[in-house]
Amino acid sequence: MTPTAAAVSTGFRSRHGHEPAGVWFAPGRVNLIGEHTDYNDGFVLPFALPHRAVVAAAPASGSGSTVTSAQEPETVTFSAAGVAPGDLPGWAGYVAGMFWAFREAGYPVPELDLVLDSDVPVGAGLSSSAALECAVGVALADLGGVRVDRTPMAVLARRAENDFVGAPTGGMDQMASMHGRPERLVFLDTRDDAIELTPFPLSGHGLTLLVIDTRAPHAHADGQYGERRSDCAAAADALGVPALRDATLEAVEALTDDRIRRRARHIVTENDRVRDVVALLAGGADPRRIGPALDASHASIRDDFEITVPHVDVAAEVARDAGAHGSRMTGGGFGGCVIALVDDADVPAVRGAVEKAYADRGWTAPVTFTATPSEGAARLS
Ligand code: GAF
């Protein structure tokens, strides 16, 4: 259930014996299309989920900072003034990493008591970590008395993720969490962080975007993500371009190393698909028309980028066979979630078909929910 400001305030009160100074939130995200393009100076098209991390905070009553999460058993303490990369493993690193990133940027960093709750599924490729970082970031800015705009806040959150936690991600997730808007996709050019909010009128067309959480294990920092980054860098190097964003398909097809060629082909064709989808939606087309691009994206991440696993391939294929207009894995890969664009009337059939396919294979049942583009990070109370 989505944590409310009142519930998280109550949690704060029972832990600290007084009211928090405020409550802030930031959402997780689904990426509609544009996978692994964000560290290649490319294009992405995510949207913010209604699922969010919520943080209640106040100036610390002791000499250091504390953070408690409804999802975790222990309270973690750290010094906002001194915490450094390597000090805190696990979930608290995303929190302390924001304090560190603020400090590195020269912003004031007060010691705080924080109480967190989140309904963004963890390990599902829906950016639970970016939600945490951005929620803490907006709280930290308000309580430190500084104004940090949405894009610079996303940049600080990415810094926390890359340089404090040590996950070598791009910047899409934090930008989606900061810039999300109801009924809008966040079309992001990662070369200059330019944003265009693109309409995604699902309900007006009788459409649902289903998220199928395959529950297959998923992790960024497991080496595979970094290997894909290195392959892309090697391809750009071989092509003599600053980033794969600048490569042509013709040049890519001439690369002699088969693996490097396929990695680069995914990036170049995926950038084209993102731009095609944006052109359709910005032009007012029926969103059903983006279905083929979603399918092609899935085939590309399966065959060329090789980041899917059987659980996601089965979900994507079965959803399509059961009537989805398009379906694809979303997020970093190696597990996580599949999205499917489905007529409202076909939702039970698609959900049922995927559940049956999983049961037939003896797999843990998937969890399915509807995703609607939602608000980006803000103060709640
Ligand atoms: C993860 C990363 F955090 C993003 O930066 C992005 O690369 C994504 O995987 C793949 O598109 O979510």
TrEMBL record:
One of its GO terms (biological process) is galactose metabolic process. Residues 12-59 form the Galactokinase N-terminal domain. It holds the Pfam family GHMP_kinases_N. Residues 286-359 form the GHMP kinase C-terminal domain. The keyword Glycoprotein does not apply. Gene3D superfamilies: 3.30.230.10, GHMP kinase, C-terminal domain. GO terms for molecular function: ATP binding; galactokinase activity; metal ion binding. Residues 94-180 form the GHMP kinase N-terminal domain. Its EC number is 2.7.1.6. InterPro entries: Galactokinase, Galactokinase_CS, GalKase_N, GHMP_kinase_C_dom, GHMP_kinase_C_sf, GHMP_kinase_N_dom, GHMP_knse_ATP-bd_CS, Mevalonate/galactokinase. Belongs to the GHMP kinase family. GalK subfamily. This is Galactokinase.
